[in-house]
Amino acid sequence: MYFYSSLVAVYIFAFGGGLAIYRGISRMLDPRLPENVGWNYGILAVAAAFEFYSWRVAYRELRSRKDPDESVFDEIVGSKDPTIFTVFLEDSAGLIGTVLAFLGIFLGATFHNPYLDPVASILIGTLLAAGLTLVFSTRECRPRSALPPRVLCPLLPGRIRSREDSLRLPPASA
After folding, report:
1. φ, ψ for residue 169 (rounded to 5)?
2. Can you tell me the distance from the alpha carbon of 81 to that of 22, in angstroms, rounded to the nearest whole number?
């Protein structure tokens, strides 16, 4: 049902995270101080402004859908509709990544350390990989959420009594 939202999440989080980690590692092997720092700051400021606007819209929508006694994190993990929280998570990762990129460039230029920018890139990639993990920890994106209670009841005796209970499964243990 929400195949395309999940597909976009994979593209943004997995490929973006993988590319950021790859670029960070390749820059660690060939370190250079950041160039054109002013342009970098300007581009990061514009990116942060657009990300913040999109994040604010997604956050308001997410808050309007959650129960009053539920946290935003509970709504993300328990939501059946991944479209809103996928945008919210992507924008959250974008904002945090923008701050990390700014810090990597700023600290690298300030301390004349060519390794701080690549470290920031690796941290951004790790952040995106963590976002992908959170997207797939939600009910709708897990393969087992599609199983009907008659199939799940024998697998988890005493836990599932109805269709609603099958939608509130605990996270799979490793």
Report:
1. -70, 145
2. 32
pLDDT at position 51 is 94
CA nearest 5: which of 113, 98, 136, 124? 136
What local confidence, expressed as pLDDT, does residue 11 receive?
79
Residue (of 23, 28, 47, 31) closest to 124 by Cα position: 23
- Check residue 137 and give its pLDDT: 65
Domain layout of the chain by residue ranges:
3-141+159-166
DSSP string, 17-75: HHHHHHHHHHHHHS------HHHHHHHHHHHHHHHHHHHHHHHHHHHHHS-TTS-HHHH
76 in Cβ contact with 138 (< 8 Å): yes
The predicted structure's pLDDT at residue 103: 97
H or E stretch at 80? none
Name which of 10, 171, 14 is nearest 77 in CA terms: 171
Place of tokens 């790859």: 22
Residues of the chain with pLDDT under 70: 1-6, 79-81, 135-174
